[in-house]
Amino acid sequence: MSEDPEVSRGPVVTPVRVVIGLCLVAPFVAMLWVGSYADADPDFIGVPFFYWYQMAWVLISTVLTMIAYKLWQRDQRARREGGAK
């Protein structure tokens, strides 16, 4: 029996993939750590901190997810091109 050179030896952890993971985990950590934003002050345009902090994370999460997606696309493209050589 011969070994197939195409067999993957498990997931490859690269710095790009670590950044992707951090971009995707950051919103969860920020929202699950309620003690960091469970306060009414400071208010912004009359809206308590508790609410505008969560709304800000909706926008931040969108940007971080977009960054993670673009990095993933670039990583996959680089792996395809690297494997074709």
TrEMBL record:
Coiled coil: none annotated. The chain crosses the membrane at residues 18-38, 50-72. Keywords: Membrane, Transmembrane, Transmembrane helix. Pfam families: DUF3311 (PF11755). PANTHER family: BSL5891 PROTEIN (PTHR40034). This is DUF3311 domain-containing protein. It comes from Streptomyces lancefieldiae.
